[in-house]
């Protein structure tokens, strides 16, 4: 346990000292929320159920999800590839440290950052944009964010396992998530997409995550069991492929 | 002071890549507490052998015991007794020297103190600096510090000074000499002859996947007992004008070279011959081969290296 604590401490320190990851992971989702609120914040939306809700009640959870994915998927994949390619993992595998400490260190670190992002969004939403989580649904939000963060950590490990080099990691991770944000109700309401695109997005992992988070803010909708199930399924798929393809040593040389 | 059981014992080690034996029935013993320099050209199989000893690669044949255990099956208790400096690894740039050592200390059951290790590798002034801002030589010393933090019995150093300037190398050598004084066994892979001469108790030269020569630097030097007599061929004369010597002379440019095991007798004949003709033998020297020459002779031509 001491080992894991030191690992997480070191990983968090290293994370906080890399300005580029800090910007893309922590600040970019916040900047997006602030911009979208400035542009669409006063509007309200009529849902498929007929309920009318403030646009903010959709935007805050959407960018919360973006923050969690940035930490648990994008940043995690980039860091893991980097540690592998610089020989850091190989080196630690030559010490008595068990393998799980390295993986757990990375995953716990990204979970800590993800939780930080959720708190920032909760506070911003509540105090700046006047949207509050329904108190009955708060445990659901916590559970949903944890399940989503862990599922995306597994997908992040999968992406890391499939990424050939340190240089390829940031563009690959972003190429995967940016289109998904567009079709999953983060930048654009999912209702305004063509049917086929909405259906496709519904099966991919980002839209279910957005649905779970939105549910805490817009309680009228039914319990998103299907979305939670999809998230877990994606997480398991990521885990299987990651453990199949994962390696500790650099690909080059 | 060789211990009762060797720190490393290798018998008939084989590693194949495709149908080529990169390591080809290699035998080697490393005594406890000694610094063994493991030399060879690039592609001779040094790193492959080292990584098998470290437990990173599997072997295709032979027996290997490192600190009494087989690296292929040894566990965390075994790795706790090793310190490894890889050829290509660099410390995490964002952590300071002290933070890096603190993290690695947590991996080991019985680590050295962080400050003790910082002093051992001479990074007191850089202790609070981020590893990414250290010079190449300082980063490598931090690498060694990371290898020492677990209080290892055996340290592997794979080409630790490649790319160093002369100052950095000398400082690094001091660190390694300090290790020997602590009684740590050091397995040092290098392709610098002077490094082996300064640091090593014994030198093993690898060629074509085998140990081609093994001994103290002095013993290796004695392997080629020949002394070379050199002088500039006097103007207007050919090699056939020289007197009969114990070995046949050859010409390198205008310089005559005679590799001889009887330098005193040959010199007497040569000098008598030259003096009798009123010739001055310009550039007359008698040289013992350096360890470098011995290495070149044993390790084979550069052209044979494959990678």
Assembly type of the chains comes to heterodimer
Reported CATH architecture of the largest domain in chain B = 3-Layer(aba) Sandwich
Shape category of chain A: globular
- Termini distance of chain B? 37 Å
Note the main sheet of chain A: 2 strands, antiparallel
Gyration radius of chain B, in Å: 24 Å
Strands across the major sheet of chain B, in which order? 5-6-7-3-8-9
Distance N to C terminus of chain A: 34 Å
Q: Mean pLDDT of chain A, as a whole number? A: 91
CATH superfamily of the largest domain in chain B: P-loop containing nucleotide triphosphate hydrolases
User: How much helicity do the residues of chain A have?
Assistant: over 70%
Based on CA inertia axes, which overall geometry of chain B fits? elongated
Largest sheet of chain B: 6 strands, mixed
Account of the 3D structure:
The complex is a heterodimer of chains A (253) and B (307). Chain A is mainly α. Chain A is 74% helix and 2% strand. Chain A has helices spanning 2-16, 19-40, 55-85, 88-93, 99-128, 138-162, 169-183, 195-203, 206-217, 225-245, and strands at 44-46, 52-54. Chain A has a two-stranded antiparallel ribbon. The longest helix of chain A is centred in the N-terminal third of the chain and has 31 residues, at 55-85. The radius of gyration of chain A is 18 Å and the shape is globular. The model of chain A has no long low-confidence stretch (mean pLDDT 91). In chain B, helix 3 packs across helix 4 (114-120) and helix 5 (136-148) runs parallel beside helix 6. The two termini of chain B are 37 Å apart. At the A-B interface, helix 1 and helix 4 of A face helix 2 and helix 3 of B.
